[in-house]
Amino acid sequence: MQPYELPLTAAADAIRARQLSPVELADSVLERIAQVEPHLQAYVTVAAEHTRRAAREAENDIAAGRYRGPLHGIPMGLKDLIDVAGAATSAGSRVRAGHRAQADSTVAARLSAAGAILVGKTHTHEFAYGLTTPQTNNAWDTGRVAGGSSGGSAVAVAAGTATFTLGTDTGGSIRVPAALNGVVGLKPTYGLVPRNGVTSLSWSLDHVGSITRTVGDAALILTALAGHDPRDPASLTTPGTDYRPVSDADLTGLRVGVPRNHYFDHVDEEVEAAVRRAIDQLRALGARLVEVEIPMTRYIQATHWGLMVPEATAYHESTLRTVPELYQTDVRILLEAGELMPAGDYLRAQRSRTLMRQEWARMLQEVDLIVAPTVPATAVEAGQETITWADGTVEGVSDAYVRLSSPANITGVPSLSVPVGRDAAGLPIGMQLLGRPLGESVLLRVGQAYEQTQPARELAHTV
Question: Residues 79, 153, 200, 352: which is the catalytic one?
Fold first, then answer.
């Protein structure tokens, strides 16, 4: 096994035991980038010289006894919405040409303090306003979409060109590409991870989280990132928590909610079968399955769009008026549509969100978590605009991909996407676990318990 193939936890253990040096790991990742990046295009920029220099510094620090913890010397990619001092944050847009960040975002600063090494900035759908990331190819089939908007981040992890990455999630933008590329994606509770220095799409829906190879890796990163930051008005004040789950796979007594509506409606047969097999595995580990009714499902799409569209337009108000021609057509149309939305529609969406949060809180009193597909279909071919379901219903690709993930953004509950197999074409399938606010520890415990029953996952081998 080459160093670039190691999950974060394994790489960290090897570095701590002096069986692997940060320089060896960084060189391996950079060689992998040289091999596959021309085919995948996960990165906007790769800072190879910075990576090598930082790896040498990490090696020297560790040798001198200044070991900072499990992220020390680990190569990472950051979605190109996340500020790093002195580096461009293009947000995938010509609008940001020439931009340079003046300071580190909170998450970049916390990862740097923990010793993680930046490899580069990963591609996003323009300003995170889309679900495909058209610049980037799927790690398992380069003729298919990567998913979005954190598509570059997911592909980098799936292909071994970063040991872990960060993304952002406003309606599924971490979990969708994670599911489509066969990796782990965590959207934490709203406000748990600060967003200072991260370009916004929709302030009341935006989250920052990780994309990793394993659930244990996600827990390590969340432990480093979580914590109050007064510069983010939504930031929560929580006690310092070590989110690393115990290795015990016994789930006896845990109540797992299985939706009888919404989450298995208009879902590909192979996706449903894989997720239900994973649910059966949780039952075999001792969990008790409980049917649940997802509340207010007819209002999900309208609430999500009613919040996101006007908030995004407000953020872009100035540049939309001065340089509209610099936006991609699909994003400009959405931003212009936001200018036509009445204030009353936005207020009704906020009221709907309040009611939805109350109903979800009641539902989550009956169970400890909910399990469901992450996305209803695997990665579609690049350029495909719709999905036709078995009953003849036609749905837009972006609408389909966001449909099962957006409730966690509306309500702010944590959601973890875990790979649960592949379809007949070899494309990955994801299952999401949704929990109570600040219930990340439960999701990580269950996700790891399931993961331990499965064979070790391989990296994508498309190139």
Answer: 79
